[in-house]
Amino acid sequence: xxxxxxxxxxxxxxxxxxxxxxxxxxxxxxxxxxxxxxxxxxxxxxxxxxxxxxxxxxxxxxxxxxxxxxxxxxxxxxxxxxxxxxxxxxxxxxxxxxxxxxxxxxxxxxxxxxxxxxxxxxxxxxxxxxxxxxxxxxxxxxxxxxxxxxxxxxxxxxxxxxxxxxxxxxxxxxxxxxxxxxxxxxxxxxxxxxxxxxxxxxxxxxxxxxxxxxxxxxxxxxxxxxxxxxxxxxxxxxxxxxxxxxxxxxxxxxxxxxxxxxxxxxxxxxxxxxxxxxxxxxxxxxxxxxxxxxxxxxxxxxxxxxxxxxxxxxxxxxxxxxxxxxxxxxx
Amino acid sequence: xxxxxxxxxxxxxxxxxxxxxxxxxxxxxxxxxxxxxxxxxxxxxxxxxxxxxxxxxxxxxxxxxxxxxxxxxxxxxxxxxxxxxxxxxxxxxxxxxxxxxxxxxxxxxxxxxxxxxxxxxxxxxxxxxxxxxxxxxxxxxxxxxxxxxxxxxxxxxxxxxxxxxxxxxxxxxxxxxxxxxxxxxxxxxxxxxxxxxxxxxxxxxxxxxxxxxxxxxxxxxxxxxxxxxxxxxxxxxxxxxxxxxxxxxxxxxxxxxxxxxxxxxxxxxxxxxxxxxxxxxxxxxxxxxxxxxxxxxxxxxxxxxxxxxxxxxxxxxxxxxxxxxxxxxxx
DNA sequence: ACCCTCCCGGAAAGCGGTTTCCAAGTCTGC
DNA sequence: GCAGACTTGGAAACCGCTTTCCGGGAGGGT
Lengths: 331, 331
Description:
The structure is a homodimer. By secondary structure, chain A is of the alpha/beta class. Helix content of chain A is 45%, strand content 16%. In chain A, β1, α5 and β2 form a beta-alpha-beta unit. The longest helix of chain A is centred in the N-terminal third of the chain and has 16 residues. Chain A binds a DNA duplex through α2 and α4.
């Protein structure tokens, strides 16, 4: 590999001068030398060794993002938003996927800490297990003690800057909207009980129904993915006229289940989701859902993480109910 | 930040010993010292500085993946496959997104080179511009000269290990299958002419029709995304009974266009795509397409890149025609 | 003309690890 | 009981770059 020393030698200058020319410095270098160095670097095909730079500078230009599953469009959108924001700051992005294993999440924070990344972004729901959350908090705290910065998209459980989707309120608004259409008997495909995002959405929905004086919904737990929605849909009681799946991907699974059983949506049963995943906007029937500005949230989380010292910030992001054809008005 | 020296001091041992205990070495360290070092590291919350390790070892444990767009499920699947494979090898992943800008792609190779990543994976179609391809090749060659490894998913145009989806053959098989159902008048929503993947799929389709003695299809160029499919669908001639969109996402756009216009699929017109994107499997009507094992391809590309020296490998990956309800049999 | 800045080039000290090379034990086998 | 082979701990060189500190020369004010 070509080193800076090779370049300096070839250009007949010192290491210091070569460094100043090639890797941005506040100091000026005379035009003649500057040209010689640049030419030498070009001829030799010099590429700075960033590991060495990081070590010498004591700061890297990499950030880390930890997501559960990149093939889940929810996380893809979040990550994409953060990556665009990172790109505008000239930062590189390291991505880790946990596949919903909290231990993996902790391990990634540790690894990213070891990498001395500038910031760590944690995307995705926390789990309700205080032991796990506690260990993650510790790991993050250690990282931050060493000057690392961190932010999270999801629940404010980690003591770091947080972009928090208003899951409860979004679900509540959705419930009110659906009730406004005349529905009274609901089911919630609620996902795993320990997943805070799922639990919050479910709770917000239930509370709103309660406030409206409507009967409590049938709550069906299961996996937080397409197949979870599919399976859960098959357990929905006959009296239910409207099903709320706590995310869009589950809602699509539920729609598939109904389609296979010959149950018409929305004629026989209405279905709503949450997130407004872009890739699913062309689904038929079009999904009623709560829109979350995922890309912005990812970008915002990065901004928060990078912003200089100030008290820990928690930003609520409101969702917007989007009524589409998967839901019908009861006469 | 806690350094190895701090740990060594606290444990009362030398730097060398501390290093050997904490960061895997071939050499043994006595149980007593080992315990002391481990305890000290734990108490202090030591995290090795990977930049320093990379520098000292001359090898990093990071790989780079360059994709066009993470929110495109095609790339998400590819990246996910590669990331899983990387995780089993204990490698970290750096992801760059180019948003289909070839300059960005080159820039990323340069940056990843500077990072001295172990391997670079380039995912996604090449463009037919020899100048751009040439510069990318050069950049890759430089990287490889320095001991870097590279592989690509797409066309064998870069002189590196390649996992090449059999776009021509897949499209040809699809054409034959569709012709077998009695279709004779086709349109191809062909994407951008300079995009090799799109061009290959289009060409394979046309050639197969030609061999069957069928009339040449109407070819409509446009963007390679959902909106491109939507727009192109509106230009399809009235005589056409079957539309081939060169990827699934475009096909979904086309379906949306037809739906809006009240054209029934498959009754009035049949539509087929390419890729068999998982997220779209629940689309209605279910999309006839050519299945590509995207995750495997991503994983395989990483394997190829990591494998020790041997001649450059090019592996064809066959697609499998999947007939679903978006296509009807002509009577 | 002289003194004081200011500017620019180079030498060298780190940054935080790894690893080679020594030296001092500790085991063996006879 | 002792030479020789192993094992284990430490000192120090080194990885490639940044940056401080110095010194010499040019420019400017009086």
